[in-house]
Amino acid sequence: MTDSAANGTIALLGRVISVTGGADADAVLVRDGRIEAVGSRELAEQAGRAGIEMRDVGNRAIVPGFVDPHIHLELYAAARGRAVDCRVPGCKTIDEVLDKLRDAVADVAEGDWLLAYGNLFFDQKLAERRLPTREELDRVSITIPIQIACGGHTSVLNTRALELARVERFLNGAAGLWGSPVVHLDDRGVPTGVVSEIDQLLPVPPMQKEQLRKNLATTYSELFTAYGVTTFGEMLSSFDNVDLFDDLIGSGEVAARGVLYPMVPSAGPLEEVCEWVTRWTSRSGADRLSSAGIKLFADGGYSARNAATRTPYVTEHAPYPGYKGRLNMSQADIVRAVLATREHDIQIAIHANGPRAQDEIVEALLALPGSLQHKPVRIEHAGNLVNDRTDLERFRKANVVPVLQPMFLYNFMADFVPMLLGTPGTTGRLPLRSMLDDGVGPVASSDVGPGAEEEQSNPLFSIWECMARRSYWDRHIEPEQAISFAEALRLHTIEGARALGIDDQVGSLEVGKQGDLVVLDRDPREGGLQNVRDTKVDSVFLGGVEVHSREGSS
Q: What is the residue range of 516's domain?
């Protein structure tokens, strides 16, 4: 690396896709970490003659660093470092899951838990089409507490874990964290081992700081930097490890820009968390790590059968006839939270999987004055399922930013939501074409956490899914809602930056913005859908400094 490149000064020559809406360029010049010019080949050649490192990448595409505004890095890093990976297809049957757990029992320290994780809708992806039972986990151990987390909302516990968790308290109206708590009971009223929305309340000993630090760095490098993600929004479950994030980013061990969204109530009460967001400053500098807002939960997850829907769940997936999931916040709760964030001039992101939960948010916003004069409200998962196209107009009027997950169409929205909801779940799944045509700006995120599918953090896989619309079982889903590569690229760059409130700094290759660039191994616009799916990241630059180079690329 030359001295100029080490200082964030470099010129790249190739097929520059600036994501500005203008024509492509041939070169981009970054000086001292910021983009100084975007233009013709002569721009790069002049820089080279002036002693600036000039790299010619030929016909490869140069795009802005990808922006992922909704991840759970801390939780995923901890899971990768201490939990047994039981995801399908690594484990295809319950016996294979149990064998993996038995192999890991001997390594569990005294007083610790045996932790594992499976995919979202683990019960449908395993060959038996069910979750392991408490009794089956007890055959692995009756003395060591065992938890299998199935994608963030639902877990399976053995008898010892149920005892330590004191799950009976959740049968008496105690609050959950990521939705209304659920403890499944058998015909005798005994817990089956399946619980939902209480994972963060389980008495699992925390990971040692140094081990977590190492896992945070390796997880981000392997699952985000290597895929070209240079900016992320972290949904923070507590304040315990904020200093770790700051240290890792400041030291360059995590080569990224981060924006923090502490979650209410897991990080603390509403007013206290709003105050923290307002007052907190990072040692790394605001351009590298900042706090922007809070996150709350208006309902739970589809995998937990807890998303609040307008139409009933089908009989075999409902606790009683007419069941429509569970709301976790009333309109009064939503109004109180929105007013608190407006008072502190910070963002609010509200998890709402089901359309009925989204209705509660939109109706609360439309009843409040001045929605267009305040920071837009992020609704996490809005747009993954749209029952009625008129909902999009309501999103627009309420100044809502729908932060959806294209990979969820692949993971479960396409195949398993229709299983839960019947006919109402077969249309309106990720209607990107309609959203763009109706002026509702969707934003793409990965929502990566324990239980994510392989490559879920890869924006190029997500872009491909926006175009190809294939399901987990390889069905072609509502193909009329496909969008182009250029449109999908915007969802994963400038629109993600807009959701984080930093679109003046990142998300496109424009003069004055941060020099965060990604060199792809080809131009994905040529050669059809498979070419998009096969595209790899060759190089990643953060502030003009190369932070990743793919082995074997030149």
A: 3-65+512-549
